[in-house]
Design goal:
single chain, about 325 residues, alpha/beta, Nucleotidyltransferase, domain 5, 5-stranded mixed β-sheet, 3-stranded antiparallel β-sheet, about 20% strand
């Protein structure tokens, strides 16, 4: 302050100092975790210390270099020693990774939103990432790219199904072992209607644990618009359980016909009415005709029969009424 700094200089100095502090904190934490395992009883029982050497990683906070220890197993498995790096296993990153997942996610989203050039210079504090790296990351991203070698004959109707899958994480880190990944399936309906086990025609899956969901819908539109002439499609139907992320479809598909998928609809009905065909059919009729009060009376009678399940029945009732327009 004695040097009569201009405001922009002050802002720059504070920003630079803050970024340096963040990197120092991250480095201290990583090296603390590494040393904690190195001196642990568990490590001493299983591994010899092989060597400690620097490891460089590009993170969302900036470029960081920290010390990491490598280990060699004390016993052989299938006649071979096992070599191990605790820190990467604990953090859930690949031992060859150059970018952290947070960094990679920010980089891809910025590139898609603002272009490669802007993303390369503005994603990571005080570090420029090459446009070639960005291009490689987008090409290797974990969703299907479009095969445009053959443009298909455009059908009258197209179908989109959206749901979530739980991907098992191969990590020893304590805590949640699953990652929820949004998945979008497009197809042209069933190949044949007369067979008992129906097969979908021209299926295409799009899934990503990195892209924002609005980008996932944009990618779905890009695929369909490339493979088909969407101007010739009479109707596009979307079937899903109505999850929050799924409702972003209207940005890419403003004229789509959204319906609650049969599986989740029947699952909720069957839970409330215990698969009793007569009362389930009546409840189905009430919902399809938007007779909410009559439907609530049926649910209330079920709650009286099964008081221990009342809370979950009310949740299912709310779910169905909230989606009554798309049943």
């Amino acid at each position: 302050m004695d040097n009569n700094l201009f405001l922009h200089e002050l802002e720059h100095n504070i920003s630079t100092s803050t970024n340096s502090l963040n990197l120092d904190i991250l480095k201290e934490i990583l090296e603390y975790l590494d040393l904690e395992y190195k001196h642990s009883k568990q490590r001493k029982e299983l591994y010899y210390v092989q060597q400690t050497r620097p490891r460089t990683l590009i993170t969302s906070l900036g470029l960081i270099t920290f010390n990491k220890t490598y280990y060699k197993s004390k016993t052989k498995t299938n006649g071979k020693y096992h070599y191990y790096s605790y820190l990467e296993d604990y953090l859930g990153i690949d031992k060859w990774a150059k970018l952290s997942l947070s960094c990679e996610t920010n980089l891809i989203n910025n590139a898609l939103d603002n272009g490669y050039s802007w993303a390369s210079k503005n994603t990571i504090p005080n570090y420029i990432i090459s446009r070639q790296t960005i291009s490689t990351k987008i090409k290797n991203i974990n969703y299907n790219y479009i095969d445009t070698s053959q443009k298909r004959q455009t059908p009258k109707f197209l179908y989109i199904e959206a749901d979530e899958v739980h991907a098992n994480l191969q990590s020893r880190k304590k805590g949640n072992k699953n990652k929820i990944v949004p998945v979008i399936l497009t197809h042209e309906g069933h190949k044949e209607d007369f067979v008992k086990k129906k097969e979908l025609k021209n299926t295409h899956y799009i899934a990503s644990s990195i892209l924002k969901t609005d980008k996932l819908w944009e990618e779905t539109y890009r695929y369909l618009d490339t493979v088909y002439d969407l101007n010739k499609v009479d109707k596009i139907f979307l079937s899903s359980d109505g999850g929050t992320w799924i409702k972003g479809y209207d940005i890419a598909f403003p004229n789509i016909i959204f319906v609650l998928d049969k599986f989740h609809y029947r699952k909720a009905l069957n839970y409330i009415f215990k698969r009793e065909p007569t009362i389930t059919e009546i409840a189905d009729s009430y919902l399809r005709n938007r007779m909410v009060d009559e439907f609530k009376i049926l649910v209330k009678s079920q709650c009286q029969l099964y008081p221990d399940q009342k809370k979950k029945m009310i949740e299912k009732q709310k779910y169905l009424i909230n989606h009554i327009v798309v049943i």
